[in-house]
Design a protein that fits this description.
The structure is a homodimer of 334-residue chains. Chain A has helices at residues 4-8, 12-23, 28-36, 56-69, 119-133, 149-152, 170-174, 179-182, 196-212, 238-253, 257-288, 290-301, 306-315, 323-333, and strands at residues 44-50, 74-78, 106-110, 138-144, 159-164, 185-188, 226-229, 317-321. Chain A has 334 residues and is of the alpha/beta class. The first copy, chain A, has 2 domains: 4-268, Rossmann fold; 289-333, no CATH class. The longest helix of chain A has 32 residues, at 257-288. The radius of gyration of chain A is 22 Å and the shape is globular. Strand 8 of chain A pairs antiparallel with strand 8 (317-321) of chain B, so a sheet runs across the interface.
């Protein structure tokens, strides 16, 4: 098991081991996280999401340089199977990333996450705790905008950048229903392509509709989502994107917005942990249960189909929770 | 809710609706699946997996033509976010697939699956039940080899094709630990590239080691995994690949191997369903539980951290299962 002290001292080897444990669903990760949690919470977490091929990794690569120029310690978690960080790229640009290899204030890890218990949110949140405890001030989480992943990121990140590209509707249509709501900064990458202006315009139109709907009504003066053009490949617009993330960070720090957001994310994390732990407990129970074994025999002999069988066993599950222990906790707090 | 009769009659509209329900985690899908299950089970299910960019979709596209030449009714489920079937492609080859659009014995659907309860296995198994009930004889499931997905497919498919490409180690290294064990047919696609022969040779070497380890010892005469070269783009080797899948199908039908495999997959499906249903029950319990509400308050006030809180609530969960109902089931079987 990785040493807690070494992680707190920022050892990249120890940190990498911890993230590996998380990615492997290793039960040892849990006690590690418990020890690291009190030392986490100071990082600003940025989520970057978008369809495959819009250039997320190249953009993040360029952003790393901007953050390093201002001497931020920065970590990246790639959970995007199409990302070169994750080894998913066949384009050979994996090597490109190694130019940060010598910089010990940059730390890049990939996670598989697909089969992960609790899904993407849980895995990346766990990893962010490790990275934050290691002392990284900025944590970027890269996810691919396919399926649920781009929404999961909203349960972890303090600031969300949605990357699109101009062109045959692919870029903007990829900004599908619901994703407009979670983005803080919208990036039209590869903006040297034709129709870049149209893409920016369309995004701004859609966002103005969102803003007029009174989104984020719980905070008196909401953040107005920005739309930026970049060409990640040659760095165009990246400095402005960096400035905008910092501006959003500053905005979040005003009037306790970031604290409020963190509290909200903590509750989500608790729910996700509770779900995973309860499920483990049920799985253990089920494996040892006679009802389960008898049912497996019935499926084997063909006397019951798996759907009806699962429904029957579940119907008979009884779950109760002894409140006393919770009350004891309250006493301990005095 | 889609009409069961229409699905059984093969209506693509009704089938598409059913798969949408599954993909959306809609509770209505469950009762639908219960009704369709007895009519499913006759399809041969092929899993195709591999890293992004190896050409899985192009290969499947070509395979569809081969299956259609022999008049097989064939359905494809793409759960690969990088697949053009899934709308993940930005290369514009999405349109290419539409040439099957007029053929009513071909049915192609994509699923998001990432945030899916029970993960990929559960979602694709559910979808396969629908497609099988619709009368499709061949079901191809396309997954991207990133993270867990390529292993999940082993819980659903009767035959698994692993696609790689020759070249800088990307192809073969992608055939990572464990994946050799699940593949029935290994495909070196884009085999007009240099090093194709080396890739084939290396795969054969690795497979001969697997075979000598006595894999599939439960069946007296095991299937020897094949290695084939294809160039999906121009159709080279696709006919041979098709023949090899059919040969594997025939092999599986001998000596009750397919029945044995199906029984095994049914048990896995039951376990996966049981997990999902139990989890739903836990979530419902947790939402209504006082212990949960009190703990949320404590997290809010900062008197407990989310990890300790989740652990405490879980420790106090009691789970029981009333065996009587299961015994009653047995009586019903007489």
């Amino acid at each position: 098991m990785p040493d807690v002290k070494e992680i707190l001292q920022g050892s990249q080897i120890a940190g990498a081991r911890a993230i590996r444990l998380i990615d492997d669903n290793d039960p040892k990760a849990f006690s590690l996280l418990k020890q690291l949690y009190p030392h986490s919470g100071n990082a600003f977490i940025i989520g970057i999401t978008g369809s495959p091929g819009v250039g997320k990794s190249t953009l993040i690569d360029a952003l790393i340089f901007e953050f390093r120029k201002r001497d931020f310690k920065i970590a990246v978690i790639a959970v995007d199977p199409t990302s070169p960080f994750s080894g998913g790229a066949i384009l050979g640009d994996r090597l490109r990333m190694q130019r940060h290899g010598a910089d010990e204030k940059v730390f890049i890890r990939s996670m598989a996450s697909r089969g992960q218990k609790g899904g993407l949110s849980r895995a990346t949140k766990d990893a962010a705790i490790v990275l934050s405890a290691m002392g990284y001030e900025i944590i970027i989480i890269e996810t691919v905008g396919a399926g649920q992943a781009e929404f999961d990121i909203a349960a972890v990140a303090h600031s969300i950048g949605i990357v699109t590209i101009p062109g045959t509707g692919d870029g903007i249509q990829a900004v599908k229903a619901g994703i407009l709501e979670i983005g803080d900064i919208f990036i039209v990458n590869k903006s040297d392509r034709t129709d870049a202006e149209a893409a920016v315009h369309e995004l701004k139109m859609m966002l103005s509709m969102r803003n007029s709907k009174g989104q984020e009504s719980h905070l008196s003066r909401p953040w107005t989502a920005r739309v930026l053009k970049t060409i990640a490949q040659n760095g165009t617009g990246v400095k402005e994107l960096f400035d905008t993330f910092l501006a959003h960070f500053d905005f979040m720090k005003q009037n306790g917005r970031l604290e409020l957001k963190k509290k909200h994310l903590e509750r989500l994390y608790f729910k996700s942990l509770l779900k995973d732990l309860a499920l483990e407990k049920i799985e253990l129970f089920v494996q040892e249960s006679m009802a389960f074994k008898e049912t497996l025999d019935q499926i084997e002999s063909g006397t019951i189909d798996p759907i009806t069988a699962a429904e029957n066993v579940t119907n008979d599950l009884k779950i109760t929770c002894n409140l006393k222990a919770i009350r004891n906790l309250k006493v301990r707090d005095n």
